[in-house]
Amino acid sequence: MKSPAKISLDAWEARRLALLNAGLEEPWYGGPLGRHLEEGDLRLQSLEFDNSTASLRLWNFLLSEEDRLQAARRQGKKIVGAMKDLGTVSVLASAAPELVSFYPDGAWWTPCLMECSDGLFAVADALGIDDRFCPVRAMIGAFETQRHFPIPDLLTCSAGATCDDFSAIAQRLEHLGHPILWWEVPYRRVPEHGEEAVELPGGWRAPVSQVQCVAQELEQVRHALEVLVDHAITEEELRNAIRDANEVRRLVNELRTLAYTSAPCPLPALEMLIIEVLPVHFCSDREECLAVLEELLKEVRRRVGNGTGVLPQEAVRIYWVNPPADLRVLNLLEECGGRICGADYMFGHARAPIPEDIRPMEALARLVLSDPMVGPAADRAAAICCEISQFGAEALVISRIPGASHCATEGEIIRHAVGQILPHLPVLEIEVPPIADALFPALRTRLQALVETVRSRGFQPRSRRQ
Amino acid sequence: MRRVCYFSPFIPREWIIAHGFSPCRLALSAELACAGAGAGVCPYAQALVARAERWDDALLVLTTTCDQLRRAAERIALQWAGRSHQDALFVFNVPATWGRGPREQYQAELQRLGDFLVRHGGRAPEGEVLEHHLERAAGVAVAPSRTAQKQGEDHTPKKGIPVAVVGGHLFTEHHMLHYLIRNAGGRVVLNGSEGGERTYPDYAGVSAASGPLEALATAYFDAIPDAFRRPDTGLGEWLARRVRERGAHGVIFHAYAWCDLWRAAHGHLAEVVGVPTLFLELGSSPEINGHTRTRLEAFLESLA
Q: What is the 8-class DSSP label of residue A354?
């Protein structure tokens, strides 16, 4: 068995052939990663990948989602395009076997993966959604070109306490002829003195009245799904859907704990980012998602047990905030001597365990309110501090998303709040566009400086598992 | 009488008066936005944070109608932490969507605002007092609407090309936009900016007897079209109807840099108004720059 390492796309081609000769069996969506490059995912040739078969399966699973959605449609399944809530409507939809859900929001990584050869930004530009908006504007191009996912049978979008970019782009989409079922998510507030409140999956508290409002809104979504499949979605089916979603979340959380606390680092940042994305909508196939995660967990456990990893033992432990629009930046961080030890990619609620001991719709409503983006950035910062301590991170990188309305001010708030709780933690704020090649020299210098700062302060790499 | 400062049109001034406070609609100067605005920060939100830095004893009511203002409220809360007025901020959650649930949320927020005012020395309004204030407000609300309509009718000189002005907030200095339009040969027949007739409550058919929260929800939440509402079809319908009624030959949209909501809304609104449109992006300088003036002049010239 090969030692854990990061390898290029070309190296993967040779390695996969060797593995096939040695008896590797791939799932139906398996195959050479190079075929995705031929289909236009040009960024793959600039990335470095983990060399395990579990990671090969992960990448193929991720990059074959459109095929799965098309296959689902051919099988007569209804496709639900859930927007913005990132991890709630997908659970609701998974309660009905005739439904498959996905998040069109994911198109925001398409320009990166295709190195802008997709033309999605140009389409958005032509519709007045220019680069003043977050790269999620690629979504509108994907709908217009109808080349990256099938047009859903039902589109939902949470509104209210959401980013202005997303809300504005989704509204434009509706005006272009894609009807949307809007549902309200209120700004999560601190319960008033004496007001009845409940604990949310992420640990925050919210007034019961807000939970009830969201539950009421979600009932509308449930009803729309029932109309789509022409039968009621029962409480029992919802309970089962929540239980299954929690199984995915449990695996992801175990992988996070192992990957972010072990030394040397058993799995690279890029693969961990994809793993963190999976619970959002199971990449359109929950059963396969579970199988992919189980194989990854087995691999990571094996590596941790053997004391092997993909990065040097002394890699500096970094906590990362916000998803980077250019995936290559996570490789860059590792090239600079860092490793990811915890991340808030804006959808932490997608991996939070959903309560199973209360009514399913209330449980989902609580989940909605535990979204780190629907409450104050200071709440989010406090949660980040908890994870920094939990995973032993030594520095914080706040990765700004160009044009995103929340990024203009949240960095300052997070920096301030983190500074109060962890005053000696170095913090670096960077901006990562979808193709950051032109900025790499500057980004490299800044990330190297951060790594050096940590090392010069005498922090020792440590593992809670050593 | 203690003041309650606010600037969202979704905050009913009569609700504040009924609780024994003096409502004060904040007017912000662009001077406040000049210093310290980071990349991506809406100048208006920046000015609000700067204004809050020098706060007196008034209460401040902000709303969640856009991401930038919601986060400005967070920054102010952090700024005020530990100061004597740290409890003087109230963040009112205005739902973006329509329907029974969001409407009930709006009413619940009104009640929560009322409780906040009572905690700060206000009085819980009694039925008759409240009805009086609502009826008075209904009378006042109708008046400016009629005045605005008359502007588009016979009583104002018909000199100049009739145009509509639509957008979000404006700094006090940027109200000069109306003078620039006039100087360039235009005439504003519809003011759809924040604070203009688009944002007036509509008390038509509202009965105070239906209960204050119901009446206020009808007059404000149900009636005011805005770029943050989802869906925002009401805004397009309102604008197209008014443009037609007033005979506007063109529509001038304005928004501050990084205002995603109005910038994106413009794309659709331009398609539904049926007349030529111009989008002006305003900055944080008190002056409206030469480039913007030239665009405005060229637009009006092309309409002539």
A: P
From the CB of residue A3, how many other CB atoms can be counted at a distance below 10 Å? 10
Which chain B residues are closer than 8 Å to A164 by Cβ? 66-68, 228, 259-261
Give yes or no for A175 touching B (CB within 8 A).
yes
In the three-class reduction of DSSP (H, G, I as helix; E, B as strand; rest coil), residue A217 is classed as helix
Dihedral (CA of A219, A225, A226, A232) sign:
negative
CA dihedral over A306, A312, A315, A320, signed as positive or negative = negative
User: Nearest-CA distance from B287 to chain A in Å?
Assistant: 23
Structure confidence by residue, pLDDT tens digits, A125-161 = 999 999 999 999 999 999 999 999 999 999 999 999 9
Q: What's the whole-number average pLDDT of chain B?
A: 90
Query: Other CB atoms closer than 10 Å to residue A435's CB: what's the count?
Result: 19
Taking the CB of residue A177, how many other CB atoms lie within 10 A of it?
A: 9
B69 chain-A contacts, CB cut-off 8 A: none
CB A373 within 8 A of CB A162: yes
Whether A217 sits inside 8 A of B101 (CB atoms) is yes
Residues shown for chain A: 466
Of A129, A189, A407, which has the smallest distance from its Cβ to B264's Cβ?
Answer: A129
pLDDT for residue B157:
58
Please report, as a single letter, which amino acid is at residue A431. E
pLDDT of residue B156: 54
Question: B96: which chain A residues are within 8 Å (Cβ-Cβ)?
Answer: 159-160, 167, 182, 184
3-state secondary structure labels for all residues of B68-126:
HHHHHHHHHHHHHCCCCCCCCEEEECCCCECCHHHHHHHHHHHHHHHHHHHHCCCCCCC
Instruction: Write the DSSP assignment of chain B as a string of letters.
Output: --EEEE--TTS-HHHHHHTT-EEEE----THHHHSSPPTT--HHHHHHHHHHHT--S-EEEEE-SSHHHHHHHHHHHHHHTTSTTTT-EEEE---SB-SHHHHHHHHHHHHHHHHHHHHTT--PPPHHHHHHHHHHHHHHHHHHHHHHHHHTTTSS---SEEEEEEES---GGGGGHHHHHHHTTEEEEEEESTTSGGGS---TT--GGG-HHHHHIIIIITT---TTSBS-HHHHHHHHHHHHHHT-SEEEEEEETT-HHHHHHHHHHHHHS-S-EEEEEE-SSSSPPHHHHHHHHHHHHHH-
pLDDT value, residue B37: 60
Residue in the structure block whose two tokens are 């049926």:
B274
DSSP H helices in A22-63: 34-38, 53-63
More confident residue, A444 or A407: A444
Compare B144 and B208 and report the one with higher pLDDT: B208
Task: Write the pLDDT tens digit of every residue in A83-97.
Answer: 999 999 999 999 999
Q: Does A211 touch chain B (CB under 8 A)?
A: no
Q: Which domains does chain B have, with CATH numbers?
A: 3-119 (3.40.50.11890), 156-303 (3.40.50.11900)
ipTM above 0.90, yes or no: yes
Which among B77, B102, B112 has the least Cβ separation from residue A184? B102
Question: Closest Cα to residue B111, out of A195, A366, A161, A159?
Answer: A195
Q: Which residue of B has its CA nearest to A134?
A: B260
Number of C-beta neighbours around residue B39 at 10 A: 12
CA distance B279 to B258: 14
Q: How do strand A197-199 and strand A205-207 relate by DSSP bridges? A: antiparallel
pLDDT tens column, B29-54: 999 987 666 678 899 999 999 999 98
